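Attaching the record inline, Q. Sequence:
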Amino acid sequence: QSEDSDKSSAESDLETEVEQVSGYHKLLATLKTSSGSESEEEEDESESEEAEESEAEMDSRGSQETGEGEGGEEDQNDVPEEEEAEQMLSQGQADGTDTSCDPRHGVIEEFTDVKHESEFSLETNFMEEESGDGNADRKDSNPFKQHMDKELEEKEIEKMSTLPKTSSQSQWPRLGQLIFSSTLEKPKTLKADKEVDVKQLHLHKPLESTWPKVNKQFLSAVDKPTDSSFTPLQRELFCIMNSYRDLFYPERNALTNGEEIRHVYCLHALNHVLKANAQVLSNNAKRRDQRPGTDTDDHRDQGLTRPKVLMVVPFRECALRIVHLLISLLEVNDKKKIDVSNKKRFKGEFGSDPEEKPPNLKRPEDYEAVFAGNIDDHFRIGVAILQKSMRLYAPFYSSDIIIASPLGIRTVIGAEGEKKRDFDFLSSIEILIIDQADIYLMQNWEHVLHLMKHINLLPLDSHGVDFSRVRMLNLNNWSKYYRQTLLFSALQDPQINSVFNKRCFNYVGQVAIRNVPLTGSISHVVVQLPHVFRRLEADSITSVIDARFQFFIDKVLPEYRDAIMSHTLIYVPSYFDYVRLRNYFKKEDLNFTHICEYTKKAAVCRARRFFLKGEKQFLLFTERFHFYKRYTIKGIRNLIFYELPTYSHFYSEICNMLKATDNGVDATWTCTVLYSKYDAQKLAAVVGIDRTAQMLQSKKNVHLFVTGEN
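Structure, as predicted:
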């Protein structure tokens, strides 16, 4: 991201005056587009021969992310200049300012529940006998107490700040290859539990009975009766979570294991909150019963602010599912329903109307799974839990769990110089869960980085805390060393890896799942197509952007300038590379058109039509547009991957678009891919690990021919 950052500032100099409203937030104004245009577009898509003729074929789905509504109507080649400038801001590459709290963006004063403040106050309530945690005071066996009660020394903190981590590997039956790393001591490799008795997991009392019922849907008859409450994947993930190590799992799949993973991290988060609150309520009773004038330091049981768990998810639908899960985990049986404040309001704001989706919407299965339900990406909600009750829309400083999107949390944190900003509520977060991290690469990764810079800082205000109850680790500003981070993604990516490696400081250590792909997505290409992988040389990761551009215009583009090489689609993952190429194509007066996530609906239709008919030789095409729309582009004969795709399955998807046009001519198709030694992860995901090793050792171009499947 830093390389893109440098490049973007250079690129923005080429643009006209920057508009003050960030493009990303103007996108939010398009949330309520009518579903009529979606139906028109989908009817048109279903008539495969006529898809390119429709003037209204852009559907409204995902429009808040792609923001086609910006700017004036495009001419064939002219993206309004302010759009790029806005995008520079939206990517967080300019001065870091954020205007999303501006009333112009439709953000009104949000609702918070102030009615139930005393009912859910930790300070004024006491533990009910029946809901006590049987293991609350047993340090030896309770992972929660073991982790939070450990007293670090100054020299250990210094060690963690200066020394590199040491690591070791382990192979687990379901997760595969695990890398354990730690600074304080030689990392101990956990052993995967083959069988788990729920009673041995130190779960808070109600969860022992509710978890098996809530998780029943994922269990098959194949699972052993002695291990009836976890799937093999959940068992191994929970084993790591319950040890309070940081975890990075890069194989989350919305179609297959996404809900399994959501269930298990909700169990862990709720278990943590219930134990933490039980400890506070239990100590309240002890303090009430002790003799007046007795001072004791034994009741340090909380942070500087109340929120303990932060869950970062991309869409409102994800928050809806999490809250439903938490409620199910707290309801011991149908007769004992828990009291949930503001449930109806929550359902209205976070739910979706199934009738809004046109019945003939045709998209890949993975797209349907990711973009299910309410896909608004600007939200945040506080959740307070106290014994048998849950309070939705709790003010942040009275919440135990905060569920938010990166944009939702960013608009509260604000930016340097803004009058109205707040991040004190992040000061004592003990578990940070970042789910579906890959989607934030398509939204705005800068928001994630901004969050990581503001979490676990000393608060600027006391917020009415009783300092005699605050743990020493919080008073010493060491809370980041106790925070557990759980990171789930669909892929390995340098930017996600960087957050895990450089922004997570857990004293217990970290576990990363690092399996290498044996076969790549190239095996899913079903058309007969020669693939030419062209290696470019770069001295460093920061110089690779310029090196790729120079290589493209010097070595690759000249081969495609001839009119015989018409119908050439250039797939560009980075928006900033797209801007640079577009400017260069304009300067060279090449016959091209372009589609990006900011292109208006009518202009997209025009560009597709011109490209199909051969009126435009080149089509510049961004990855984010493909992510949010997944249209089939017809008329492709030559493909150039300016850089390998972020999602490996996009490679086969784009290649398979060549079969979308059958004009009776025996076409000679080509596919050219640019890569460098810094693209090893992406390359392995496309061609497999064995080929990647050979390609990185050799400095020659690699020719692969895929024969296709019947």
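The CA atoms of residues 552 and 642 lie 8 Å apart. The longest strand covers residues 166-172.

More tomorrow.
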